[in-house]
Design a protein that fits this description.
By secondary structure, the protein is an alpha/beta fold. It has an eight-stranded mixed β-sheet, sandwiched between helices. The mean pLDDT is about 95.
Length: about 300
């Protein structure tokens, strides 16, 4: 259990939706907007909240539309549209300038904030973040575990094919527990990730899957469709400080995605590790957040 537990809030949006928000970390700290992975949602995370409190950051995490208790959109939107919800949440709590970290499927959202909200976003970090499919050199799927190859393959075929697949997968993912998580994630986990999926961290990961999918697949569906479509901005347009974190053993988001982002984002600070996968890299959260605060100059 976190020594700096989060509090849950509901924030209305201008278009009539509701966003589920968790505030945690240091209540007097610099705002850190955390963009969760896919398919996940805003959920208490001692690993994140305690590390943030240690370096004087206040965590602001909201479930993207269709995940958890956040109202789904009627249709998916480009990733460049997502920062509007970030602004809505920050404004609701009277927060101005902020840092942002996105993990996995949240990585593109952190980069979008850096690109679109450059007057307010001080710095961004992308942890094991997905790269744009449009313009990606080589095989976008190379190095992914079997399940992700199938999932992205369905996304490439369009909404109908992807919806059918995710509806088939939904019952299994929505019922994951700490005990069956490693088995349930199949070919996606290298040994370093299996090693960290124990005890409280395993339960946290399973719980965020369950909560994310408690009302269906719309958030997951919209995430996947947005990944493979034009993002609405180019990484090369980002002018805010950016850090990239990636493990070479990752089987969810291959190492080549981080290499492409590193080559595309001007001045990106790169941290590539040889021994980490997709989840084990999260144990470096204190280091990641310390550097992010330094990049933001706060």
């Amino acid at each position: 259990m976190s020594s700096h537990p989060s509090t849950r809030h509901v924030v209305p949006t201008p278009d009539g939706r509701e966003l589920e928000v968790l505030l945690g970390g240091d209540p007097d700290g610099v705002p850190l907007v955390y963009h969760h992975g896919t398919p996940q949602a805003a959920w208490p995370s001692p690993l994140l909240e305690d590390a943030a409190a240690q370096v004087g950051l206040r965590t602001v995490c909201f479930s993207r539309p269709g995940y958890g208790d956040s109202t789904p959109r009627s249709a998916w939107q480009p990733i460049a549209d997502d920062p509007a919800d970030t602004v809505t949440v920050l404004d609701a709590f009277g927060l101005g300038e902020f840092l942002t970290l996105g993990w996995s499927g949240g990585g593109p959202r952190a980069l979008a904030c850096a690109a679109v909200l450059g007057d307010r976003c001080l710095a961004a970090a992308s942890g094991v973040g997905v790269a744009p499919h449009v313009g990606f050199p080589g095989d976008f799927l190379a190095g992914m575990g079997e399940e992700n190859v199938v999932e992205f393959g369905a996304a490439f075929r369009g909404e109908e094919a992807l919806r059918a697949l995710l509806e088939e997968w939904h019952p299994g993912f929505a019922a994951l527990t700490a005990e069956n998580l490693v088995e349930g994630m199949g070919d996606l986990l290298p040994e370093p990730d299996k090693a960290v999926l124990t005890d409280a961290f395993a339960e946290e990961m399973a719980a965020t899957f369950r909560h994310a999918l408690s009302r269906g697949i719309e958030g997951w569906l919209h995430d996947d469709l947005a990944f493979v479509a034009p993002w609405g901005f180019e990484p090369a347009q980002i002018r805010r400080p950016v850090a990239l974190w990636q493990g070479r053993l990752d089987r969810m988001v291959p190492f080549a995605h981080a290499e492409f982002l590193a080559a595309s984002i001007p001045g990106a600070r790169v941290h590539f590790t040889e021994e980490d996968g997709h989840l084990s890299l999260m144990t470096r959260m204190p280091e990641i957040l310390t550097e992010l605060r330094e990049l933001g100059g706060v």
